[in-house]
Design goal:
This protein is an alpha/beta fold. The chain has a single domain, classed as TIM Barrel (Alpha-Beta Barrel). It is built from ten helices and eight strands. Strands 1-2-3-4-5-6-7-8 form an eight-stranded parallel barrel, surrounded by six helices. Strand 6, helix 7 and strand 7 form a beta-alpha-beta unit. The structure holds SN-glycerol-1-phosphate. The site of SN-glycerol-1-phosphate (1GP) has 14 residues, from strand 8 and helix 9.
Length: 251
């Protein structure tokens, strides 16, 4: 079962960019879920990422079942912890926090949850997760108890991504953290993209279509936006159009 991953690889071969809307079950009101789904369908959103660093509410399965029953947009888990693995989703970003040196988030939690993850039947996508400094401590940088990559140290990001790829990770996800004050620079994205073959996901603090577009031009394959959309749902269409306007010849 590698449907979503093979789709990502195929799109990368065609220099086709994707837009993922991040739904944090803690942040999204059940009442606004339906309208976010409708807007996303209309805008041609490629994926829903579901997850968050914390899970204050205990209704993850319910939220995912609701999404699945109302749209064909694939649901990809972006878990902040093993408790956020739901068999109702389509695929799992199986994250290893390779920018940090916290063994729990590199391998420890994976060992503990491996039988459950395997039994879930989810498409598992091994993902090298690189947290980059977002200008102020973000929830992920605090919770992970691991230093993020300094925002101006492109070389560290490049070597981290290269190591992740050579260790067999099939995706690299660079994240400035949800609500980051400063998103990842295009120069860092470009440097990483030029040194890896696997699809590159970029998120954290992206609040406008221009930045999404420039990130894609720099080499991002998937743009993730959460916070900004929760505040201004009309951005779904604007950012989706910007991401999908990036064509091979323009890269
Ligand atoms: C966070 O990359 C995601 O992990 C999205 O961040 O909520 O800032 O868009 P935002």
């Amino acid at each position: 079962k590698m449907n979503i991953y093979s789709g990502l690889v195929e799109k990368k071969l065609n220099a086709q960019k994707s837009f993922a809307v991040l739904l944090d079950p803690d942040a999204v009101e059940p009442s606004s879920l339906q309208s976010l789904i409708n807007l996303s369908e209309a805008a041609g959103v490629d994926y829903f990422f579901v997850g968050g660093s914390l899970m204050l509410s205990a209704h993850l399965d319910e939220v995912i079942e609701k999404i699945k029953s109302r749209t064909r947009i694939p649901v990809v888990l972006f878990p902040g912890s093993p408790s956020q693995v739901s068999p109702f989703a389509d695929a799992l970003l199986y994250l290893s926090l390779i920018s940090g040196r916290n063994p729990e988030l590199l391998i420890g939690q994976h060992v503990v949850s491996a039988p459950f993850v395997k039994r879930s039947g989810l498409e598992v996508m091994p993902t090298g997760y690189i947290v980059v400094d977002g200008g102020a401590p973000t929830t992920v940088s605090y919770i992970s108890n691991a230093a993020p990559v300094p925002s101006d140290k492109n070389d560290i990001a490049v070597c981290t991504a290269m190591a992740g790829e050579m260790l067999g990770m099939r995706l690299i996800y660079m994240d400035a953290g949800s609500g980051a004050r400063i998103p990842i620079t295009e120069s860092m994205i470009r440097a990483v993209a030029q040194n890896i073959e696997v699809p590159l996901i970029v998120g954290g603090g992206i609040t406008d279509p221009e930045k999404a577009y420039l990130n894609c031009k720099a080499g991002a394959d998937v743009i993730v936006v959460g916070n900004a959309i929760e505040k201004a749902p009309s951005l779904i269409k604007e950012i989706s159009d910007a991401v999908h306007s990036v064509k091979r010849e323009a890269v």
